[in-house]
């Protein structure tokens, strides 16, 4: 009975990450983040590709070392195939292909979004029982996507609703940029919001039917309101940034939770998880706890380290595909855009 060792590789945006699992249990998860983008207020694709190119070998090396294995023990290589920045993806995809081919082991492609959801199945030890039971509903909120997903099985996910324009994280980041707060805006808005009044200002909430989201109207409403206030009072942002952050966060969380309640009602599934970078947000986490109490939901909130981009979530998704015998061919191209 040979142990199954999976190497996961993630390079879809600005984090180069590698992780190793043994029989679905995480042995190592190493991530190199890229500070180079801070000066530009957003990820610069060409700089991201170059940094991945520098980081990918040392990061994989570290992940294997920390896992205490050599590369010849690996059973398969799982990699992020998309969606993401093409130049960034290509580094991880090409590395994974070359590595798997040189070792003569299977290659497994992973959808980055599915990976975010699957972060809930990362086990840190054999007796880790924190995973949600199937089926469950997952709110996936990251920098590039906002979706409500019904998870029927490890390899069976159904998108019930998704954003028709911007993602929640994108909206937060853009509003933060307009306020001159820096990048990425999510953690900054989160920190400021804790000291502000969430009822101080009102911003437009979208009226979209069904379970879909929209955040572009909110962004515009925020921008125009701010423009008027600053015209009347030049130091408005500096004086009210806490209230602005708290009100913005409150509006976004409100929009997210409204549709999530609707999804729970429609499906009758009360096991509700959250995933993706924005799930690090304290206001959103508080709203989840509040809904658990008020509506009897059982909620699943991942550890901070598994909410943003990481290879552990890619490795665990790859592990379940491996168990199902699902591999991909060496000529599988990266894709920049896709849903499940
Ligand atoms: O999942 P992720 O790392 O990247 C994608 O796959 O898109 O998500 C990044 C997003 C960014 O928009 C970032 O501002 C947001 O997650 N974010 C947060 C917080 N931490 C990260 N948003 C709100 N509050 C936070 N604490």
UniProtKB/TrEMBL annotation:
Q: Which reaction does it catalyse?
A: L-threonylcarbamoyladenylate + adenosine(37) in tRNA = N(6)-L-threonylcarbamoyladenosine(37) in tRNA + AMP + H(+)
Binding residues annotated for substrate, in chain numbering? 140-144, 173, 186, 190, 281
Task: Just give the chief location class.
Answer: cytoplasm
Question: Example GO biological process term?
Answer: tRNA threonylcarbamoyladenosine modification
**Which EC number(s) are documented for this chain?**
2.3.1.234
Q: Which residues bind Fe cation?
A: 112, 116, 309
Query: What is the top-level taxon of the source organism?
Result: Bacteria
Quote one Gene Ontology molecular function term. tRNA N(6)-L-threonylcarbamoyladenine synthase activity
**Is NAD among the key words of this record?**
no
Cofactor binding: number and manner: Binds 1 Fe(2+) ion per subunit.
Query: Where does it reside?
Result: Cytoplasm
- Please give the cofactor(s) recorded in the UniProt entry for this protein: Fe(2+)
- Annotated protein name in UniProt: tRNA N6-adenosine threonylcarbamoyltransferase
- Which taxonomic lineage is given here? Bacteria, Pseudomonadati, Bacteroidota, Bacteroidia, Bacteroidales
